[in-house]
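pasting for ref. prot 1 ->
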Amino acid sequence: MKAIVTGGAGFIGSHIAERLVNEGYEVSILDILNTGDKNNFRSISDKIKFLNVNSSYISEMEKVDVVFHEGIYSSTPMYRKDNSLVWKAIQEFMAVMGYCVKNDCKLVFASSSSIYNGYPPPHTESMQPKVKDFYTEARYSMERLAELFNQMYGLRYCALRYFSVYGDREESKKEFANMVSQIIWKGLLDKEVVIYGDGSQKRDLTNINDVVDANLIAAKSNITGVFNVGTGKSYSFNEIMDKIETVIGKKIKRKNIDNPLKNYVDIVHADTTKSKEQLGFSAKIKAEDGIKNAFDYYKKLDTIPDIF
């Protein structure tokens, strides 16, 4: 079996590529190293093909069995700084879908729980996204275009709406890393964590290994559609801070400030019913265990990211 992983030098993509290699796939990685790093796939570097190109280059690639599209600008602040990333993300996605149709291969791509901004939990795939954010508009447009390609050309796809993915290998993402990684870094550096508001906002923490499981299950399934990838349990920022302090064994400095962001995502909490019943995916890793694994990884780094 052959696979392409766009963004395969990044946080999520490198973990997917590693799992694929371990399962015997021939893997090609396309990545411009925007928030990725070759060190992320160093354990499999002699077993994969790496191309320093963006996702549009996929049209030049030989036929594979499945494409994992992770090479998408992946953080709300990126889009707020440069909203032209919306059309860039869609333009590259069109090339990816065109390749998959031409080569009749399954497409699994990253979407986001930010799509549910403005809705009370739990968040179900049937909710109609509200207009809230450039990042969200890009991801939702991609989902709609995938459905259109399915109707028009028979594209086989799974769009996975990730909920607050955290874990090891986020250091190259720097300020765009998940809050869990950022808080761990602050704790290791004995620096202050800034929290917007009173810390009551909530996140459904999903470990990177569960996310990889979801991608592989989606790739091997005959299902087409949109699926949540979360745990079905959310924690407040204050609760997350407490869990991290327990793991690292010390208090972390906190500073609460007024939230300066418009249309801020207050809470994400996955309804996992559809993913369990139709896709066969259930997250397995508890937050406490995932945080411990992430901490054990980051404390061994030669240089802890000092992002602010």
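and prot 2 ->
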Amino acid sequence: MTFQIKNLNKSFGSKIAVNNISIELKEGQILGMLGRNGAGKTTTIRMMLELIPKDGGQILWKGRPFSKKNVKIGYLPEERGLYAKMNVLDQIIYFGMLEGMDRKEAKKEALKWLEKLEISYAAKKRTEQLSKGNQQKVQLITAIIHDPEFIILDEPFSGLDPVNADMLKSVVKELIARKKTIIFCSHQMDQVESFCSQICILKDGNLIVSDELANVKSSYDYRYLELETAATHLKDYLEHKKYDFTQDNNRYKLRIPRSEKIYQLISEFGEKFELHGVSLKEPSLHEIFIERTGGEVIA
């Protein structure tokens, strides 16, 4: 494996923040790292970036210690890390030079990315003059200007309107196409599903899920059968049979054990009720997350 976390531990006093977690990624894979607030995601990232020391375990890149000496790292933090009074272009160049680029190369790349993200007009503006969404674009450019091999994106779509979110999605897709190895942290489960081949879920410092997304879904004990009908007595029937279901007007969503003979069940419903629509769906990542962590996603 290209990237490995082995038996990583971190405590703050008596509080265990990260408890013996292990994660592996191949080069070019993108991992969705999920968890409610306080699950251990930020602590793990800070240990990866050597911002705080680990208590035990290893973090490796191609068998060597994971550090800026051995791998080019890009990091987009959830919190803004920009200088409010500095103009945008100078700021991006400065961050590029911190990563070893010369000024000419950094300026060329900065102008390219400003144009790509449609904020060339803001090059000479102070960062504080930009909207929250445009500041997020600048922050992303500073994270990837030096063409890193390994990228950590922490809530990259925070504060973006739909148009700008789509623009940043295209950048993430480009990074994936260029075989960058990425850790993607987000509370937006639909984004994780669209980008990530692997997921891990942390809860109270423990790694409770770690696998390919397709395997996680197929190993889930339930699927969802969606029925659409004008028959008002379907609700009474489902309640009488003690089905686990939700209703939205004339649409019903049933939680069906994977062991159930689903097509026989669909046939039985079709004989008893006039159905206008039937679909069978795997659980969404959002539904799996809620069940495994015991609560809604909290941003």
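The first strand starts at residue 3 and ends at 12.
Residues 3-213 form a domain with the Rossmann fold fold (CATH 3.40.50.300).
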